[in-house]
Structures are given as structure tokens and as C-alpha cells.
Amino acid sequence: MPKQKTHKGAAQRYKVTGSGKIRHQKAWRGHNRHKKNARRWRRVDGESTLTGGNAKRAARLLGR
Asked: How far is CA 2 from CA 22, 53, 56, in A?
């Protein structure tokens, strides 16, 4: 049986933590930072963890 290939688009968007959770970057961070006020910027800062069906789908794409 052939090996399952990783979906390269998903691999560039998601990171798997040591405990197996799937992390992703939040939206609205790409550019135009100075237009967005500090409260809005804090709301979208950093990464978040996928849960439920989204995590299952991403795990399948990553070959887990």
C-alpha cells in the first residue's frame, strides 16, 4: 500500500504541537498594521488552536 502524502498547502498553514494539537495563525494580520487600533490588533494577535471538526480535517490533510 502506498504512503499517504502530506497536503503541502496545509503543512504551510498549520503546526502540530508536541502534545498533538494543531495550531494556526489568526486572520487579519497580513498587512496594514497601522490602520488597526491596538485593541483590534490584540484581539487577533498570534496563534490559536483548531478544535472539533476543523482539527480533524487538518489532521487528515497532514497525514496524522
From this structure: 25, 26, 22
- The tally of CA atoms less than 13 A away on the side-chain side of residue 56 is 2
Number of Cβ atoms within 10 Å of the Cβ of 1: 3
Residues 11-57: pLDDT tens digits?
999 999 999 999 999 888 889 889 999 998 888 888 999 999 999 99
Burial of 51 (0-12, 13-18, 19+ CB in 10 A): exposed
Q: Tell me the residue length of the chain.
A: 64
Cβ count near 30 (within 10 Å): 7
Alpha carbons 11 and 47: distance in angstroms, whole number: 15
